[in-house]
């Protein structure tokens, strides 16, 4: 099939940026979306045009590196699928596709479709851990954890940190991302000691980085490739409320 | 070149304890005076970085990804082994040790593997304390499952995302140390050279991938945790960015490379669909528990699989290995699939490189719901990628490059042949011999990072003292110049072919001649074709853009350039090893039934190769493998 692409090109953080039109020719339905971009890039190189820069690594939907807005939807039209696992059979000959980077004040553009998501790392640094050093820990079976709690923790911990939630949110809120980590640790006995401090510190840091707040659009859940539920945001709000009332 | 594995004397079970006591310690108040560089933030790198910082060392960490959380350890699905014996099924440290040695086809060091089994239990404790949501039984205890190559249930898992959960817990520990100021993190930074002064590793030269700036970083010790070289085949289950550059450039600076021909090919990956294919995706091996693998009995049969009657199907694994059947080990299953496809029985869209993995019998026997519960997420993934619904149509699979057992040579302390250069995780060669068992990669990465190198690096630092070399030293300047010149050279060629197309072409050569099975004629052919392709690369590669900005094509070209040199060592190693062992199958050395034939008398050694100039045969050193605690046996899966 042949497609028309409109792609955001921006040389660096300072550059103004613009949409450029490219043709994607002889694309087959078995290609992944990123393989389609590979083909376009090979073409561009042969035409002496700098290839489109985009983030990607594992190409199997788990590292969280790939991050494209496709026709206004983070990771494109297929539900619960990262862009690296989206395949061209979801498009048809003659389609026009708009490809843009994540848009958020807290995710400055690095180049073309690549954004800087280090704000996520800094939020995690603020409290997204359990403070234990290597060694000197009890036997793994010494604290039983109910299957239900372990499953809830895992549901939340499945977050891949891609940032689609922020890109989808009209407020550019990072609350689903933080809620996932807060809920993961709050569901486990090991996470109790720092429970109150953790939620307060991570939220304070979220504000500092310039992310917005949640006003219940639920766009984040719809865009999340790992289908992290917004119920974790509710849980985080309860955690935050309790911590604010009773915590240090 | 000196090869002393530094294996402690004494009984196997006491070696590590004894060694820990004999190692020198760095006084707690002196630790902050030492600086350690770590390259790579996968399980090994992140866990080592966090542990060093907790001890009080100053740590700098580099990774090419935008965040340390993205390292490819994250993609491991199955689980992590430990000798906990929680299932009361007879597991023990010795049994895990024995299974690992045997699985590696008796080509690894007893002492290293035993230590790995010993610390495996600490890893599970550590990860649980850090909040890893491992699967649980209803009573609240940890659940286990069994995995290939073992008769006990010792694998801990977090759904199909064990690697992700373990990596994120090590990443959390690392971030805590970044927040405390003990670790300085350099993401989007690629190591391009190792700096050695007075025979000691003193630091590295890196390229900032956003602005292209080259900088030098000096330290008292350097740790490489840069993963494996599976992308040497171009198509593999590795992430696109995985590369051999850091390890290879250390090799060029004098670190020996051990057993490069030991590369694991995983049997159950989704097949290639065309020339544009950029990577391959693994389907968990667990599918073989309920799936039957077959091809049509008629060559080039193009009928849809459901229209091929039962008696016209060849269940080749069941036919060849009646007792293990579809559960034959990875190397054997992979080779058998290749054989039937090479003979013209393969299926699928692309060059007949595929075999059916059919769960329809299991669906009939157990019902869709049970199958959905067991493999639902895998089926979804398969459908997402291929567009076929595996509940109705058998899946197609084909083997793919997955893991590399070879790596930089290290001694018992995980130090390379260059003093002060340590190598951990998949980047070293140490524990898996000629074949790695499932769920052992995660175990080794975390063992190295959390529980081995924090001790052994202290011993090195205490004995060698502070380095007095800083980043202004002439060796650093010389390295920076070499790196800058290579970038300039690559950009100046302005040829006709992209770096990716060279990589693809090179991958075909390696896959064909140094892949699942090798022979002398093929390896010699590869050794002719690789230098020719390398020469063409340096005359005809085309890269657009400059070196002073984010330039992904330039990054790739640098990595391809190193693969084009590294591929030769792989072939030399495969050529030298005139036996078949584990993942290394030399067609000339097989039994009458077509099984691997080991030659313990002549090849019970580690091949460690020393750089001898680009395009020249490297120098082979042999580290003999001594077995005092296990009896060498022949694997049989008939």
List keywords for this structure.
heterodimer, A: 248 residues, alpha+beta, Ubiquitin-like (UB roll), Fumarate Reductase Iron-sulfur Protein, Chain B, domain 2, two-stranded antiparallel sheet, 8 helices, 7 strands, B: alpha+beta, Methane Monooxygenase Hydroxylase, Chain G, domain 1, five-stranded parallel sheet, five-stranded antiparallel sheet
Describe it.
The complex is a heterodimer of chains A (248) and B (638). With 248 residues, chain A is an alpha+beta fold. Chain A is built from eight helices and seven strands, in the order ββαβββββααααααα. Chain A is 35% helix and 11% strand. In chain A, helix 3 packs antiparallel against helix 5. Chain B has 16 helices and 19 strands. In chain B, a hairpin with a 5-residue loop joins strand 7 and strand 8. Chain B is 36% helix and 14% strand. In chain B, helix 2 runs parallel beside helix 11, helix 3 packs across helix 4 and helix 14 packs antiparallel against helix 15. Among the domains of chain B are: 137 residues, Alpha-Beta Complex (Flavocytochrome C3, Chain A, domain 1), CATH 3.90.700.10; 129 residues, Up-down Bundle (Methane Monooxygenase Hydroxylase, Chain G, domain 1), CATH 1.20.58.100. Chain B is of the alpha+beta class. In chain B, the strands form five sheets. Chain B has a five-stranded parallel beta sheet. Chain B has a five-stranded antiparallel beta sheet with strand order 11-15-14-12-13. A four-stranded antiparallel beta sheet of chain B has the order 16-10-18-19. Chain B is globular and about 75 Å long.
